[in-house]
Amino acid sequence: MTNWLVTGATGLLGGNAALQLSSAHEVTGVSRSAPGKSPVPFIATDISQRAGRSGLIERSGARAVFHSAAISSIEQCADEPELAWKLNVEASADLAAQAHIVGAAFVYISTDAVFDGARGSYTEQDRPSPATEYGRTKLAGERAVLNANPNALVARVNFYGWSPNGHRSLAEFFYTRLARGEMTNGFTDTIVSTLYVGRLVAAIERLVDVRAKGIVNVVSSESTSKFDFGRRLATVFRFDPELVQPALSTDHLAVKRGSRLDLDTTLVTKLLGYAPAGQQEGIAELATDFTAGRTQAVSAFTPEKEA
Ligand SMILES: NC(=O)c1ccc[n+]([C@@H]2O[C@H](COP(=O)([O-])OP(=O)(O)OC[C@H]3O[C@@H](n4cnc5c(N)ncnc54)[C@H](OP(=O)(O)O)[C@@H]3O)[C@@H](O)[C@H]2O)c1
Question: What's the whole-model pTM score?
Fold first, then answer.
Protein backbone atom coordinates (compact mmCIF):
# COMPACT_ATOMS: atom_id res chain seq x y z
CA MET A 1 0.00 0.00 0.00
CA THR A 2 1.29 3.44 -0.99
CA ASN A 3 0.14 6.86 0.12
CA TRP A 4 -0.79 8.64 -3.14
CA LEU A 5 -1.39 12.34 -3.72
CA VAL A 6 -3.46 12.86 -6.90
CA THR A 7 -3.54 16.41 -8.26
CA GLY A 8 -6.39 17.32 -10.58
CA ALA A 9 -8.56 14.73 -8.81
CA THR A 10 -11.80 16.37 -9.96
CA GLY A 11 -10.74 15.99 -13.61
CA LEU A 12 -11.17 13.15 -16.11
CA LEU A 13 -7.86 11.43 -15.43
CA GLY A 14 -7.35 12.51 -11.81
CA GLY A 15 -10.87 11.49 -10.78
CA ASN A 16 -10.39 8.04 -12.27
CA ALA A 17 -6.90 7.76 -10.76
CA ALA A 18 -8.16 8.72 -7.28
CA LEU A 19 -11.09 6.29 -7.56
CA GLN A 20 -9.04 3.37 -8.85
CA LEU A 21 -5.97 3.82 -6.66
CA SER A 22 -8.15 4.17 -3.53
CA SER A 23 -9.21 0.53 -3.84
CA ALA A 24 -5.70 -0.53 -2.75
CA HIS A 25 -4.00 2.60 -1.41
CA GLU A 26 -4.45 5.68 0.78
CA VAL A 27 -5.32 8.54 -1.60
CA THR A 28 -5.57 12.29 -1.07
CA GLY A 29 -6.97 14.44 -3.89
CA VAL A 30 -6.01 18.00 -4.81
CA SER A 31 -7.97 20.59 -6.82
CA ARG A 32 -9.12 24.17 -6.32
CA SER A 33 -12.54 23.10 -5.14
CA ALA A 34 -13.25 19.77 -3.48
CA PRO A 35 -16.22 17.48 -4.15
CA GLY A 36 -19.05 17.74 -1.63
CA LYS A 37 -19.02 14.07 -0.62
CA SER A 38 -15.68 12.82 -1.80
CA PRO A 39 -14.77 9.16 -1.22
CA VAL A 40 -11.18 10.30 -0.44
CA PRO A 41 -9.75 13.20 1.61
CA PHE A 42 -9.20 16.37 -0.43
CA ILE A 43 -6.94 19.39 -0.18
CA ALA A 44 -8.59 22.38 -1.89
CA THR A 45 -5.81 24.68 -3.06
CA ASP A 46 -4.74 26.64 -6.12
CA ILE A 47 -1.40 25.09 -7.08
CA SER A 48 -0.74 27.72 -9.76
CA GLN A 49 0.06 30.01 -6.79
CA ARG A 50 3.35 29.46 -4.97
CA ALA A 51 1.62 29.84 -1.58
CA GLY A 52 -1.06 27.33 -2.62
CA ARG A 53 1.48 24.55 -3.20
CA SER A 54 4.17 25.39 -0.69
CA GLY A 55 5.08 22.31 1.37
CA LEU A 56 2.11 20.44 -0.14
CA ILE A 57 3.82 17.08 -0.64
CA GLU A 58 5.54 16.93 2.71
CA ARG A 59 2.33 17.98 4.52
CA SER A 60 0.30 15.29 2.73
CA GLY A 61 2.73 12.53 3.72
CA ALA A 62 2.55 11.20 0.14
CA ARG A 63 4.99 8.53 -1.02
CA ALA A 64 3.85 8.86 -4.65
CA VAL A 65 2.40 11.81 -6.59
CA PHE A 66 0.10 11.45 -9.60
CA HIS A 67 0.32 14.96 -11.03
CA SER A 68 -2.49 15.34 -13.53
CA ALA A 69 -3.65 18.90 -12.73
CA ALA A 70 -3.15 21.13 -15.75
CA ILE A 71 -4.80 23.55 -18.09
CA SER A 72 -5.66 20.69 -20.44
CA SER A 73 -7.72 22.57 -23.00
CA ILE A 74 -5.90 23.56 -26.19
CA GLU A 75 -8.25 26.55 -26.55
CA GLN A 76 -7.78 27.76 -22.95
CA CYS A 77 -3.98 27.55 -23.27
CA ALA A 78 -4.18 29.68 -26.43
CA ASP A 79 -6.42 32.22 -24.64
CA GLU A 80 -4.63 32.26 -21.25
CA PRO A 81 -0.97 31.40 -21.93
CA GLU A 82 0.31 33.04 -18.74
CA LEU A 83 -1.89 30.86 -16.52
CA ALA A 84 -1.05 27.78 -18.61
CA TRP A 85 2.72 28.34 -18.11
CA LYS A 86 2.26 28.95 -14.38
CA LEU A 87 0.35 25.71 -13.85
CA ASN A 88 1.65 23.35 -16.54
CA VAL A 89 5.31 24.34 -16.15
CA GLU A 90 6.15 26.24 -12.93
CA ALA A 91 3.80 24.37 -10.57
CA SER A 92 4.80 21.01 -12.09
CA ALA A 93 8.52 21.71 -11.62
CA ASP A 94 7.99 22.90 -8.05
CA LEU A 95 5.95 19.83 -7.08
CA ALA A 96 8.52 17.55 -8.75
CA ALA A 97 11.27 19.24 -6.70
CA GLN A 98 9.21 18.83 -3.51
CA ALA A 99 8.79 15.11 -4.25
CA HIS A 100 12.52 14.76 -4.88
CA ILE A 101 13.35 16.33 -1.50
CA VAL A 102 11.08 13.96 0.46
CA GLY A 103 11.95 10.93 -1.73
CA ALA A 104 8.40 10.40 -3.06
CA ALA A 105 7.77 8.97 -6.54
CA PHE A 106 6.54 11.64 -8.98
CA VAL A 107 4.51 11.12 -12.17
CA TYR A 108 4.05 14.06 -14.54
CA ILE A 109 1.21 13.49 -16.96
CA SER A 110 2.26 14.75 -20.39
CA THR A 111 0.67 14.41 -23.81
CA ASP A 112 1.02 13.31 -27.42
CA ALA A 113 0.54 17.02 -28.25
CA VAL A 114 4.27 17.60 -27.67
CA PHE A 115 4.44 16.48 -31.34
CA ASP A 116 3.08 18.37 -34.35
CA GLY A 117 1.40 15.24 -35.74
CA ALA A 118 3.04 15.41 -39.15
CA ARG A 119 4.33 11.82 -39.03
CA GLY A 120 2.97 9.67 -36.17
CA SER A 121 4.39 6.53 -34.49
CA TYR A 122 6.59 8.77 -32.33
CA THR A 123 9.08 7.13 -30.00
CA GLU A 124 10.44 8.62 -26.78
CA GLN A 125 13.62 9.52 -28.70
CA ASP A 126 11.87 11.53 -31.41
CA ARG A 127 12.32 15.26 -31.27
CA PRO A 128 9.18 17.01 -30.00
CA SER A 129 7.73 19.82 -32.10
CA PRO A 130 4.54 21.10 -30.46
CA ALA A 131 2.12 22.93 -32.74
CA THR A 132 0.00 24.55 -30.02
CA GLU A 133 0.57 26.66 -26.90
CA TYR A 134 -0.82 23.71 -24.90
CA GLY A 135 1.83 21.39 -26.38
CA ARG A 136 4.58 23.97 -25.76
CA THR A 137 3.63 24.30 -22.07
CA LYS A 138 3.45 20.52 -21.61
CA LEU A 139 6.86 20.02 -23.28
CA ALA A 140 8.40 22.77 -21.13
CA GLY A 141 6.73 21.08 -18.14
CA GLU A 142 8.39 17.75 -19.03
CA ARG A 143 11.82 19.37 -19.20
CA ALA A 144 11.37 21.43 -16.03
CA VAL A 145 10.13 18.36 -14.10
CA LEU A 146 13.06 16.19 -15.19
CA ASN A 147 15.49 19.00 -14.37
CA ALA A 148 14.04 19.35 -10.89
CA ASN A 149 13.68 15.61 -10.30
CA PRO A 150 15.70 13.13 -12.40
CA ASN A 151 13.74 10.22 -10.86
CA ALA A 152 10.40 11.54 -12.14
CA LEU A 153 8.30 9.53 -14.59
CA VAL A 154 6.99 11.58 -17.53
CA ALA A 155 4.03 9.70 -19.02
CA ARG A 156 2.97 10.85 -22.49
CA VAL A 157 -0.68 9.90 -22.70
CA ASN A 158 -3.95 10.14 -24.60
CA PHE A 159 -7.02 8.63 -22.96
CA TYR A 160 -10.81 8.40 -22.73
CA GLY A 161 -13.24 7.22 -20.08
CA TRP A 162 -16.11 8.28 -17.81
CA SER A 163 -15.39 11.65 -16.21
CA PRO A 164 -16.71 13.27 -13.01
CA ASN A 165 -18.79 15.85 -14.90
CA GLY A 166 -19.83 13.41 -17.63
CA HIS A 167 -18.67 15.38 -20.66
CA ARG A 168 -14.85 15.51 -20.73
CA SER A 169 -13.79 12.64 -22.96
CA LEU A 170 -13.97 11.49 -26.57
CA ALA A 171 -15.96 8.42 -25.47
CA GLU A 172 -18.50 10.62 -23.67
CA PHE A 173 -18.74 12.89 -26.72
CA PHE A 174 -19.85 9.95 -28.87
CA TYR A 175 -21.85 8.15 -26.18
CA THR A 176 -23.99 11.20 -25.30
CA ARG A 177 -24.90 11.98 -28.92
CA LEU A 178 -25.44 8.36 -29.96
CA ALA A 179 -27.69 7.71 -26.93
CA ARG A 180 -29.89 10.59 -28.15
CA GLY A 181 -29.91 9.12 -31.68
CA GLU A 182 -28.07 12.17 -33.06
CA MET A 183 -25.83 12.20 -36.14
CA THR A 184 -22.30 13.06 -35.10
CA ASN A 185 -19.01 13.84 -36.83
CA GLY A 186 -16.02 11.55 -36.42
CA PHE A 187 -12.72 12.97 -37.67
CA THR A 188 -11.02 10.74 -40.22
CA ASP A 189 -7.90 12.93 -40.26
CA THR A 190 -7.01 12.64 -36.54
CA ILE A 191 -5.11 9.50 -35.59
CA VAL A 192 -4.43 8.82 -31.91
CA SER A 193 -3.42 5.88 -29.74
CA THR A 194 -5.98 6.71 -27.11
CA LEU A 195 -6.14 4.31 -24.14
CA TYR A 196 -9.01 3.52 -21.76
CA VAL A 197 -8.33 5.51 -18.59
CA GLY A 198 -8.71 2.43 -16.33
CA ARG A 199 -5.86 0.74 -18.22
CA LEU A 200 -3.81 3.95 -18.11
CA VAL A 201 -4.08 4.27 -14.32
CA ALA A 202 -3.21 0.56 -13.86
CA ALA A 203 -0.18 0.98 -16.13
CA ILE A 204 1.07 4.02 -14.23
CA GLU A 205 0.64 2.24 -10.90
CA ARG A 206 2.79 -0.60 -12.22
CA LEU A 207 5.40 1.72 -13.75
CA VAL A 208 5.81 3.37 -10.34
CA ASP A 209 6.13 -0.09 -8.76
CA VAL A 210 8.97 -0.98 -11.11
CA ARG A 211 10.53 2.50 -10.55
CA ALA A 212 10.34 3.54 -14.20
CA LYS A 213 11.69 7.03 -14.80
CA GLY A 214 12.18 9.47 -17.66
CA ILE A 215 9.86 9.78 -20.65
CA VAL A 216 7.53 6.83 -21.41
CA ASN A 217 4.65 6.71 -23.91
CA VAL A 218 1.69 5.21 -22.02
CA VAL A 219 -0.93 4.75 -24.73
CA SER A 220 -2.82 2.03 -26.56
CA SER A 221 -0.78 -0.40 -28.60
CA GLU A 222 -3.23 0.25 -31.47
CA SER A 223 -3.85 3.60 -33.16
CA THR A 224 -7.25 4.69 -34.43
CA SER A 225 -8.91 7.58 -36.23
CA LYS A 226 -11.54 9.38 -34.15
CA PHE A 227 -14.07 8.28 -36.79
CA ASP A 228 -13.21 4.58 -36.35
CA PHE A 229 -13.25 5.03 -32.59
CA GLY A 230 -16.79 6.47 -32.75
CA ARG A 231 -18.03 3.68 -35.03
CA ARG A 232 -16.48 1.03 -32.78
CA LEU A 233 -17.97 2.57 -29.66
CA ALA A 234 -21.40 2.68 -31.35
CA THR A 235 -21.16 -1.03 -32.15
CA VAL A 236 -20.04 -2.05 -28.63
CA PHE A 237 -22.87 -0.04 -27.01
CA ARG A 238 -25.40 -1.27 -29.65
CA PHE A 239 -26.10 2.14 -31.16
CA ASP A 240 -26.38 2.66 -34.93
CA PRO A 241 -22.76 3.01 -36.21
CA GLU A 242 -24.04 4.92 -39.29
CA LEU A 243 -24.88 7.82 -36.97
CA VAL A 244 -21.13 8.51 -36.87
CA GLN A 245 -20.33 10.31 -40.11
CA PRO A 246 -16.84 10.97 -41.54
CA ALA A 247 -15.62 14.56 -41.19
CA LEU A 248 -12.37 16.54 -41.38
CA SER A 249 -11.05 18.25 -38.24
CA THR A 250 -9.71 21.08 -40.40
CA ASP A 251 -13.32 22.04 -41.26
CA HIS A 252 -14.42 22.17 -37.61
CA LEU A 253 -11.72 23.13 -35.07
CA ALA A 254 -10.77 26.71 -34.19
CA VAL A 255 -7.21 25.85 -33.06
CA LYS A 256 -5.43 23.53 -35.50
CA ARG A 257 -3.70 20.47 -34.04
CA GLY A 258 -1.67 17.59 -35.38
CA SER A 259 -3.15 14.87 -37.52
CA ARG A 260 -1.06 11.78 -36.68
CA LEU A 261 -0.46 11.82 -32.94
CA ASP A 262 -0.06 8.07 -32.38
CA LEU A 263 2.87 7.02 -30.21
CA ASP A 264 5.13 3.97 -30.25
CA THR A 265 4.59 1.55 -27.33
CA THR A 266 7.74 -0.60 -27.52
CA LEU A 267 9.25 0.84 -24.33
CA VAL A 268 6.11 0.71 -22.18
CA THR A 269 5.44 -2.87 -23.28
CA LYS A 270 8.92 -3.85 -22.11
CA LEU A 271 8.60 -2.00 -18.80
CA LEU A 272 5.12 -3.36 -18.01
CA GLY A 273 5.76 -6.87 -19.27
CA TYR A 274 2.53 -6.66 -21.31
CA ALA A 275 1.17 -4.55 -24.18
CA PRO A 276 -1.32 -1.81 -23.25
CA ALA A 277 -4.86 -2.61 -24.47
CA GLY A 278 -5.84 -2.35 -28.14
CA GLN A 279 -8.92 -0.36 -29.21
CA GLN A 280 -11.53 -3.14 -29.07
CA GLU A 281 -10.33 -4.30 -25.66
CA GLY A 282 -10.35 -0.76 -24.25
CA ILE A 283 -13.86 0.09 -25.45
CA ALA A 284 -15.14 -3.27 -24.20
CA GLU A 285 -13.76 -2.41 -20.75
CA LEU A 286 -15.35 1.05 -20.95
CA ALA A 287 -18.68 -0.74 -21.47
CA THR A 288 -18.08 -3.29 -18.70
CA ASP A 289 -17.21 -0.50 -16.28
CA PHE A 290 -20.34 1.39 -17.32
CA THR A 291 -22.47 -1.62 -16.40
CA ALA A 292 -20.57 -1.98 -13.12
CA GLY A 293 -21.49 1.61 -12.11
CA ARG A 294 -18.22 3.43 -12.81
CA THR A 295 -20.00 6.58 -14.08
CA GLN A 296 -21.70 7.04 -10.68
CA ALA A 297 -18.50 6.18 -8.77
CA VAL A 298 -16.49 8.73 -10.76
CA SER A 299 -19.20 11.40 -10.47
CA ALA A 300 -18.48 11.52 -6.71
CA PHE A 301 -15.35 13.48 -7.72
CA THR A 302 -17.35 16.35 -9.27
CA PRO A 303 -16.45 19.58 -7.48
CA GLU A 304 -19.23 20.86 -5.23
CA LYS A 305 -19.61 24.04 -7.33
CA GLU A 306 -20.51 21.95 -10.44
CA ALA A 307 -22.48 19.12 -8.77
N1 LIG B 1 -7.90 14.92 -21.82
C2 LIG B 1 -7.02 14.36 -22.66
O3 LIG B 1 -7.42 13.73 -23.65
C4 LIG B 1 -5.54 14.47 -22.43
C5 LIG B 1 -4.68 13.99 -23.42
C6 LIG B 1 -3.32 13.99 -23.17
C7 LIG B 1 -2.81 14.47 -21.97
N8 LIG B 1 -3.67 14.99 -21.04
C9 LIG B 1 -3.11 15.47 -19.76
O10 LIG B 1 -3.69 14.68 -18.74
C11 LIG B 1 -3.85 15.45 -17.55
C12 LIG B 1 -5.28 15.39 -17.07
O13 LIG B 1 -6.14 15.87 -18.08
P14 LIG B 1 -7.72 15.89 -17.88
O15 LIG B 1 -8.33 15.96 -19.22
O16 LIG B 1 -8.08 14.81 -16.94
O17 LIG B 1 -7.89 17.31 -17.17
P18 LIG B 1 -9.22 18.02 -16.69
O19 LIG B 1 -10.39 17.11 -16.77
O20 LIG B 1 -9.26 19.34 -17.41
O21 LIG B 1 -8.90 18.29 -15.15
C22 LIG B 1 -7.94 19.21 -14.74
C23 LIG B 1 -7.81 19.12 -13.23
O24 LIG B 1 -6.84 20.08 -12.79
C25 LIG B 1 -7.39 20.82 -11.72
N26 LIG B 1 -6.84 22.17 -11.70
C27 LIG B 1 -6.90 23.08 -12.69
N28 LIG B 1 -6.30 24.22 -12.31
C29 LIG B 1 -5.86 24.00 -11.04
C30 LIG B 1 -5.16 24.80 -10.10
N31 LIG B 1 -4.79 26.06 -10.40
N32 LIG B 1 -4.89 24.29 -8.89
C33 LIG B 1 -5.27 23.02 -8.56
N34 LIG B 1 -5.91 22.22 -9.43
C35 LIG B 1 -6.21 22.70 -10.65
C36 LIG B 1 -8.89 20.84 -12.01
O37 LIG B 1 -9.67 21.08 -10.85
P38 LIG B 1 -10.31 22.51 -10.48
O39 LIG B 1 -10.66 23.18 -11.76
O40 LIG B 1 -11.47 22.15 -9.60
O41 LIG B 1 -9.21 23.19 -9.73
C42 LIG B 1 -9.11 19.41 -12.47
O43 LIG B 1 -9.21 18.57 -11.36
C44 LIG B 1 -3.35 16.85 -17.89
O45 LIG B 1 -2.03 16.98 -17.44
C46 LIG B 1 -3.41 16.91 -19.40
O47 LIG B 1 -2.47 17.80 -19.92
C48 LIG B 1 -5.03 15.01 -21.24
Answer: 0.97
